[in-house]
Amino acid sequence: MTDQELVDRALAVRECAYAPYSQFSVGAVLLGKSGEIYAGTNVENASYGLTICAERSAVFSAIAAGEREFEAVAIVVKGAGSPCGACRQVLSEFHPSLRVILADEHGKIADVLSLADLLPRSFGPHSL
Ligand code: THU
Questions:
Q1: Which of 23, 66, 103, 114 has the CA that lies 20 to 30 A from 81?
Q2: What percent of the chain clears pLDDT 90, i.e. is strictly above it?
Q3: Of all atoms in ligand 1, which is nearest to the CA of residue 17?
C-alpha cells in the first residue's frame, strides 16, 4: 500500500471523528506487517479527560485484531500536525522507529519521518 493510499484511508476515517468539543478531527491508519490496515479516529467525551486520540484508537484496534507488528502510520489533521506525546509513546511500544506519514486535511503529505525523530531516547520495554 502506498503512502498516499494510507493517507486517503486516514482522510476517510477522519470523517467519523467524534469531536463535538474541540471540532478538531483526526484520522489515523496503521499498516500492519500482515498488510492489514487499522483505522482510528478521536473520540471525545463530555468528561473531557476521557477523550481518546485517533492514533491510540488505531493501535488498540490493531492489537485487538491480533496484529502487533507495524510498517507505518498515516495521520491526517488540519495543518498536518504531529501526534501528541501520549500517542508517540504508545506507538513506540510496538515500533520505536515506525514510519510516520503526516498529511493535512486535504490529504497532502507534508512529512514522512521516523517515530524515533519524534520521540528520541524513548522509554520502552527495553528500559524495564
Ligand atoms: N488528538 C488526536 O486525536 N491525536 C493527537 O495526536 C492529538 C490530539 C485529538 C484529541 C482531541 O479530540 C482533539 O484532537 C483536540 O486535542
A1: 66
A2: 100
A3: 12
Interior angle at CA 80, CA 3 and CA 67, nearest 5? 45
Q: Tens of pLDDT along 67-112?
A: 999 999 999 999 999 999 999 999 999 999 999 999 999 999 999 9
What would the grid cell of residue 39 be?
Answer: 483505522
| Helix or strand run (H / E) with residue 114 | strand 109-114
Ligand 1 centroid to Cα of residue 96, in Å, is 21
Contact 62, 54 (CB under 8 A): no
* CATH number, domain 3-127: 3.40.140.10
Q: Where in the chain are the domains?
A: 3-127
The cell numbers describing 73, all together, are: 502510520
- Identity of the residue numbered 28: A
Q: Which helix (H) or strand (E) holds 29?
A: strand 27-32
Q: The whole model's pTM is what?
A: 0.97
Give the ligand 1 atom nearest the CA of 22. Answer: 15
